[in-house]
Amino acid sequence: MKSLRYNPRVAARNLRRGFSLVELLTVIAIIGVLTAITIPAIHKVRVMAHQTQCASTLRQIGSAVQMYANDNGGMLPGPLNAYQTGYYKDKSSAELVAHIQPYFAEQEWIGGGTLRAKNFICPAWTAMNDTQKGACYQMNMNFYTDDKNYFEPFGRAASSRPPHNVTELDGKTSSMYILYEVDNLNALGVVSFAPVHGKVRHRLFFDTHVEAEDAIVEAKL
Question: 146, 125, 128: which is closest to 137 by C-alpha?
Fold first, then answer.
């Protein structure tokens, strides 16, 4: 039987051989396929995490509004502006968070006496909006009654109209909303082209439940 002998020249030649071009291209192709599969999955997980966190934040806002009303004889916070940015100076502000801050939001100083509620604004909106300017939410400024009349539950700061009592909602807390996401970067009433939650926006109701609805993307004026 022929014996196998160690040949240092053959061994050195095999070591120098390395990977062939075909093998390298195969590895690169496999990495590309794995990346194409993994990145969308990671993005989807991130979007879902932001949606969950945002819905939780909105429920906390709803609970804070309820606690405010309980401590103020049923009166809702206000008068408020339609668009909400999370920035305020004192409790006379037309920002919702200025009234419910003791029940909810951690605040930070911005400067010039201005405060910002860190956990009031949608985290996905914060991540996408580098300038941190504009409105993230819009209040429900009109409550329609059964006789087709309406009133402004949170009042209206621009017209100095006071807020109303929660008892005037006629027990419709599960069907009437407090606010909804607008993803509005310019606070001019124009919805942005890029909803921060992909194809959905959230709406917070008076009974604190949150619904995700199809996002309506409007053309800029």
Answer: 125
Spatial separation of the C-alpha atoms in residues 98 and 81, rounded to whole Å = 12
As a three-state string, the secondary structure of 102-151 is HHCCCEEEEECCEEEECCCCCHHHHHHCCCCCCEEEEECCCEECCCCCEE
Q: Which of 38-42, 164-168, 201-205 has the lowest mean pLDDT?
A: 38-42
Q: Give the end-to-end CA distance of the chain in Å, rounded to a whole number.
A: 90
Q: Give tens-digit pLDDT for 198-218.
A: 778 889 999 999 998 887 654
**DSSP letters spanning 5-66:** ---HHHHHHHHHH---HHHHHHHHHHHHHHHHHHHHHHHHHHHHHHHHHHHHHHHHHHHHHH
Tokens for 125, please give them: 């909106």
Provide φ and ψ at 147, rounded to 5°: -90, 20
> How are strands ordered across the β-sheet holding 114-117?
87-88, 114-117, 107-111
The residue among 61, 50, 101, 47 whose CA lies nearest residue 209 is: 61
Q: What is the number of other CB atoms lying within 10 angstroms of the CB of residue 173? A: 17
DSSP label at residue 166: G
Q: Are 136 and 86 in contact, with CB atoms under 8 Å apart?
A: yes
**Helix or strand or coil: residue 99?**
helix
